[in-house]
């Protein structure tokens, strides 16, 4: 289970709310991985991937517009990271997912948890701190 902690809060209410959504998606994947009674998890994995795609489109657009509104100078390099996330999610091979479902859930979980720890805690914090100074 991936738990929202105060250290993830950036102080931008709407963005914090959106960040909580990626925790929800990660927990859906975690719960699915631990579900021993669900033998064929393919459809639910596809739903999680769709949720990640939708999240990326909505959240990244909102966040990039926010950074633009505060004059954040590292917007373009930040956008590259967002684009990398979207590319990774969009290039998931669903045939491979079907072949080894639990392994793929673990891969998705690792990717999302790493994103939370590296992107939200470090990269997003930079624009939040910039905003607090202005």
UniProtKB/TrEMBL annotation:
PROSITE patterns the UniProt entry points to: HEMERYTHRINS
Keyword flag Methyltransferase: no
Coiled coil: none
Domain Hemerythrin-like, residue spans: 11-128
Residues that bind Fe cation 1: 19, 59, 63, 124
Binding site for Fe cation 2: 63, 78, 82, 119, 124
A Gene Ontology molecular function term of the record: oxygen carrier activity
Family note: Belongs to the hemerythrin family.
Job of this protein: Oxygen-binding protein. May be involved in a storage mechanism or for delivery to oxygen-requiring enzymes. The oxygen-binding site contains two iron atoms.
NCBIfam families (UniProt xref): bact_hemeryth, hemeryth_dom
Assembly behavior: Monomer.
PANTHER family per record: BACTERIOHEMERYTHRIN
HAMAP family documented for this protein: Hemerythrin (MF_00556)
The protein's name: Bacteriohemerythrin
């Amino acid at each position: 289970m991936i738990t929202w902690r105060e250290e993830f809060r950036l102080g931008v209410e709407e963005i914090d709310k959106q960040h909580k959504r990626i925790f929800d998606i990660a927990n859906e994947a975690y719960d699915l991985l631990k579900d021993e009674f669900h033998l064929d998890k393919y459809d639910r994995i596809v739903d999680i991937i769709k949720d990640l795609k939708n999240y990326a489109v909505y959240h990244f657009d909102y966040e990039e517009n926010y950074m633009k509104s505060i004059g954040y100078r590292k917007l373009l390099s930040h956008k590259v990271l967002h684009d990398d996330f979207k590319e990774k999610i969009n290039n998931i091979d669903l045939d491979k997912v079907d072949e080894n479902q639990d392994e793929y859930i673990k891969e998705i979980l690792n990717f999302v948890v790493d994103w939370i720890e590296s992107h939200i805690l470090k990269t997003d914090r930079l624009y939040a701190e910039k905003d607090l100074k202005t």
